[in-house]
Amino acid sequence: MTGRRSIPLSILYYAVLLLVVLAVMLPIVVTAGNSFRTQDAEIFNYTQTLSLFTFIPRTFTLSHYGRLFTDTGFGVPMGNSMLVAVLTVAFGFLVNGLAGYTFAKYRFRGKTPLFLVFLFSFMIPFEVIAIPLYKTCSALGILNTRAALVLPMIGNGMIVFLYMQFYKDIPDALLESARIDGASTLRTYFGIIVPLSVPVIISASLMMFIQQWDAFLWPLVAASGKALKVMQVAIAEFTGESYTDWTLIYSATTIAILVPAVILIPLQKYFIQGVVGAGLKE
Amino acid sequence: MIRQAQSGNARIPKRRGIRLEPYLLLLPSILLIGIFKIYPIFYSLAESFVKSARGGVLRFVGLDNYLSLFSEPTFAHSLGITVWFCAVTTVLQVVLAIVLALFLNRRSKAVRMARTLIYIPVSVSMVIACTVWNLFFSASTGIINTVLSSLGLREQPFLTSRDQALYVIMFVCCWKGIPYWMMFLLAGLQNINASVYEAAKLDGAGFWTTLFRITLPMLKNSLVFVIISDTLINVFMFVPVYLLTDGGPSMSTDTLMYEAYRSAFSYGNYPRAYALVTVMMIIAIVIAAVQMAITRDNEPRAARRVKGGARA
Amino acid sequence: MKKNTGKLMGALLILVMLTGMLSLGAAAESAPSGTITVLSFTEYHAAVQAAIDAYTALNPNVTVNLEEYPYAEYNDAVTIKLGSQSQDFDVVMTDATMVSSYAYRGWISSMDAYFTQDEKALFASALVKTGAFEGQFMAPPLCNSCQALFYNKDLLDAAGIAYPSQNPAKRLTWEEIVTMSQQVMESLNDKTIYGLTFEQVDRPYQILPLPNSLGATAFGEDGLTVDGYLNSDNFKKAMQWYSDIHNVANISPKGTTAADSNGLFMAGKIVFLTGNIFNYNTFGKTEGLNWGYTAFPYFADGAAATPTDSWHVGLSSGSQNVPTAVDFIKYFTLGEGNSIFLETRGAFAATISALEKYSSDAKYDEFPLSIFRLASYEAQNTAFPRPSTLAYGEFETIIGSTFSDIRNGVDVTEALDSAVSQLDTQLTMYQ
């Protein structure tokens, strides 16, 4: 995979790379482009006859972004979504990471059934358990608080599964030597395992972040107050009973796409270098 | 798979008797998953055995909801669509995610930039992905048809055709899903030491031998995660149908999950919805169990030998 | 002596109170206090909040919480909240078509005890019927709505076609609309221009008027039979027309959704749009759009059947503060709160006195507010509400897909028969 290639092959490689990037980016470019169009009508005008303006706006305006933050106060729901997502990621890392570690490296009674139950728990789509979950949160008295948005989303069977699969790759010899040095379990975990698992921690965190960043139906019903409103709910409100404010939707959507991307870019280097040096699998 | 985890050599706990430690480490996740996931799931399961009548009064009816479900022509139809969608989409997503991960597993500035851009769909929500792709696939006003007609090609009905709608949905799922699953595979590829490849090269292994004998087996733990998670997610795929087709045209995209959603929220018929979900869970569990059984410790000897060689 | 007088006075007082309660309803006498929560939707925020502010100014002891959901998700949210038997809600905004369904599930309580016959008579009588379930008055109407036909003057000018009259007696037929659309499309020769679209494509609210105009209805009298109605000859005939405008005459765009229709009209891409009269507001603010309105069309061999529909206000069965909730509902539907709501929202009234204002008040002489006068005529003469059935949720979902299939060219008989069979499966739940 890492060998040298001939020049024609390299050209082919980069041509394919370019094509893939274009295919992936096109819809995002169009979305961002639409957010700069002067008015809704333009979106419909140019989609129907092919020209450069089908994809990019004829005249650029930033006014919708201004409108988004001043008229609709989009900053508040954005901040709420960010806070909820960050809290979920932080707690999710602690809770699911430790669970994954336990499943990967411990032998204990009831392990298989317990793991299956965890796995089973992530399959069920949220829409299906909305009513009992609402009842539970009502009984716990956490409705209309951030706890209702964060707590139910922390424990995640899929993330536990993800951590477990990756922790399995870490050689037991490493843990054994830490044990011999007298390190406690938590110390071994945070001191040895975690630094070796940066790529998977990033993947898992991104997954949890996006889950909350996208969350719609649950925040809609569980925390309906204005002060707690999250981003996707705010975006949905641009679609009215009879009229949809597309330019606002596109500007908000562009922001919603860019924020996680911007967070991810500096983390890229961990992804690539990460544990390569450590050479876990040998 | 679980048994495999237990059968490894140097496990940490060596003492005999029940140790509290693993349970303590699991306690937070057990509590959270138990309260917020498992309890609601069992609540839902229980409701598939009752019927609600006037005023929301509940009556136990045994398996009635299941029997009447199985007698509906809609059920077999939706089951078929769900299985077909899940099979095609999962295979496409997993295979292409592997190809893409291998393709991008290179170190160069251009590749790193491309990788960053390709990750962007990962951070695009399904709701947004559907809104955006709808702009492209819409029959009368869509960008793709505008392009087709200006190239002198026939316009396509896409989401308004019962023969094409499901494939448009598969496309949208792949657009988002391939980079998503690739992310985990790429993280897994990073765990493989370059010296393993060097050793393979010295042994004279070609591209395909290296791929099937070394790369994929060593990627196994990540692959198992990707295959199982992806399958389960595709069994319960919902948002694209909800946003793009509403199960149509002519019910051609009416998956079990969409039927369950309709039952609960449009029809107010929870028992039917929960019966549908139970059926889906059984399907998902069976598939996951089969996948786990197949992928259980079948690491080829060749890979082990290479591993051993690399260590030596 | 004094003691006795005191006792007597006390007894009298109690008697007066009891009589008061019996005649005026339990809520009338106890002063409203405490907290109530209103479930409403986001689009109505300004108007509902204005009415609430006025109410709390009158009743400083009352706190009114307003919980709002976007229109598209309102029913899902209500289903989760009321379906979980929550006691956190007191007042629930209810679409006319959901009154029966919410009542059947026990989510809203009867209001017979709180509204006198005289009070009920203050509402347009058709809406009192809509707000009832099995003979009980469940939810008083808040406002009504009415559909009209909007047109783009510039596009008609381009083809040299005269503007349609605002006089409901001279409304267009659907056949005329097809001809006029074809004329415009031919003379402009621009394939991005379409003749006709419906604001709510594929939704029963605007599509059922087609069969209704031919005298066909979706349900039988019991609200639970569709076979013989949904697939009757006249129903099929109307649906064939709906299919033809998309597949034969090609005057209507395919693959658009309700969210696109108004945008297309405002972009000048549509000659005729059927829509809620409330659109006068948005269209009036759209630059470069030169528009007019006329009454909702009908088939040449049928009669006018204009879609009107109302929003109602229900009392949540889980309410822990019924007296205050009822007091607020009255203020909101009959009292000053209703006028504030209508004024702020520009909504169409549901009370007889407010309807009369549309003909008497001079401000409704002028375009575009004159559209209310048309609506008021339609409400009293040609109104055809959506079907009254327990299974409206099921119906709307299934018929929505059916309309969409017909629009995409599926054979009309095949599509309607499939709808009948799907609906029959769901309707067994109520039999």
Characterise the protein shown here.
The complex is a heterotrimer of chains A (about 280), B (about 300) and C (about 425). Chain A has about 280 residues and is an all-alpha fold. Chain A folds into two domains: about 5-60, no CATH class; about 75-230, MetI-like (MetI-like fold, Orthogonal Bundle). In chain A, helix 1 runs antiparallel to helix 14, helix 4 (about 75-105) packs parallel to helix 7 and helix 5 crosses helix 8. Chain A is built from 14 helices and no strands. Chain A is globular. Chain A has helices spanning about 5-35, 40-45, 65-70, 75-105, 110-125, 125-140, 145-155, 155-165, 170-180, 185-195, 200-215, 215-220, 230-235, 245-270. The longest helix of chain A has about 30 residues, at about 75-105. Chain B has about 300 residues and is mainly α. Chain B has a single domain, classed as MetI-like (MetI-like fold), CATH 1.10.3720. Helices cover about 70% and strands about 5% of the residues of chain B. Chain B contains 15 helices and two strands. In chain B, strand 1 and strand 2 (about 55-60) form a beta hairpin. In chain B, helix 4 (about 75-105) packs parallel to helix 8 and helix 9 packs across helix 15 (about 300-310). Chain C is an alpha/beta fold and about 425 residues long. Chain C has two domains: about 30-145 and about 310-350, D-Maltodextrin-Binding Protein, domain 2 (3-Layer(aba) Sandwich); about 145-305 and about 385-430, 3-Layer(aba) Sandwich (D-Maltodextrin-Binding Protein, domain 2), CATH 3.40.190. Helices cover about 45% and strands about 15% of the residues of chain C. In chain C, the strands form three sheets. In chain C, strands 2-1-3-11-6 form a five-stranded mixed β-sheet. In chain C, helix 3 (about 45-60) packs antiparallel against helix 16 (about 335-345) and helix 19 packs antiparallel against helix 20 (about 410-425). The N and C termini of chain C lie far apart (about 65 Å). Residues about 20-30 of chain C have low confidence and may be disordered. At the A-B interface, helix 1, helix 4, helix 5, helix 6 and helix 7 of A face helix 1, helix 2, helix 4, helix 5 and helix 6 of B.
